[in-house]
Amino acid sequence: MTSLLSRRETAPEVRTVPVGPLASVLGVVLLAALTAAVAWGSTSVPPAEVWSAVWHRLSGEAPRPGTNDLIVWQLRVPRALLAALVGAGLGLVGTAVQALVRNPLADPYLLGISNGASLGAVAAIVLGAGGALGLGLSGAAFAGALATFALVWAVARRGGGFAPLRLVLAGVAIGQFLSGFTSYLVLQAGDEQQTHSVLFWLMGSLSGANWDLLAVPAVAVPAGWLCLQARARGLNALLMGDETAAGLGIDVTRLRRELFTVTSVLTGVLVAVSGAIAFVALMVPHVCRLVVGGDHRRLLPVSALFGALLLVVVDIVCRTAMDTQELPVGVVTSLIGAPALLYLLDRRLGSGS
Predict the structure, then answer these.
(1) 19, 42, 113, 277: which could form a disulfide with 267 (CB 3.0–4.6 Å)?
(2) pLDDT single digits (tens) 251-283
């Protein structure tokens, strides 16, 4: 009986690639992508000089004279690290949310949290609400995410229980309601520059990255991963249904409450620092499941690494694709994510899975 339960708690799918070597390869490629993200731009910096400037800063030595040190350390390193953190966080959130609601098409937008963060940020830009409350743009976005979390929680919990369908319907309804308010505020923008700022933020942007902005996601993303990794067994069990999970000793209601809290807070942090970036949280888990299977003990770290790599590469494209302006991150992720997701769906349907 024990061996049977042990087998049922493991991966819903058989892994195809050992996770250790895969994680090592992804880590090396991610490091190379981070180097390229710092080196490439309107002013190119040789990779050797990139690492020399970073080493001088990390070792506490005096900054080297010239503009390259300023470009590398103050502008590009924070942006590259923010892209990696946001990508990793979105990969984690997407993986957890899809297990939480047992829906392979789920992402943070489905629960309305991204809509709440967007409304808070747009209100800060258009109405100056964030400044009036001393929150700033990121603080207003995070406050909007938390307020939405509380509202979705209250609606989903009405009548007792914590059913996935009730949670999804509450998130979708409240998200659309908040999206309507956001659209209204966009129409109230006072000038062209303000409208441009709102739309650029709603489509996702890492252009505001700096060392101060990195502090919160640098703590939240690793902490969120540790919380989710500790619940990997429960995530596996949820995919087999509530009755099966309860039979394996999982407190399903408590687990869903914990997962909803972790994913909501992490989503609020990510949207607050980068805006609304589409498709990453939806696409990354699907790609990673094809490679390592559905066991969340392996899927979570691989999703984090692949999400980080994907967003670093996308940000390079956003900064370098056009000479005159920078592309919003969400535009590029949508252009990549939609065809990729259609391909994955076609592959799954074609294989009968």
Answers:
(1) 113
(2) 888 898 899 889 888 988 898 889 889 889 988
The amino acid present at 111, given as its one-letter code, is L
Q: Give the span between the Cα atoms of 245 and 254, in whole angstroms.
A: 12
| Number of CB atoms found within 10 A of residue 174's CB | 21
Amino acid identity of 130?
A: G
Maximal CA-CA distance, the chain: 68
CB 315 within 8 A of CB 83: yes
Closest-CA residue to 191 (of 120, 124, 126, 275): 126
262 dihedral zone (left: phi>0; alpha: psi -120 to 50; beta): alpha
223: amino acid identity, one letter: A
Q: Is the pTM of this model over 0.85?
A: yes
Q: What is the mean pLDDT of residues 127-146?
A: 72
Cα separations (Å) of 229 from 5, 20, 223, 244?
20, 16, 10, 20
Measured at the CA of 322, the angle between CA 318 and CA 323, to 5 degrees, comes to: 125
Hey, how many other C-beta atoms are within 10 angstroms of the C-beta on 43?
11
- DSSP string over 122-169: HHHHHT-HHHHTT-HHHHHHHHHHHHHHHHHHHHHTTTSS--HHHHHH
- The Cα 267–Cα 145 span in angstroms is 8
Residue 246 token pair: 């309860």
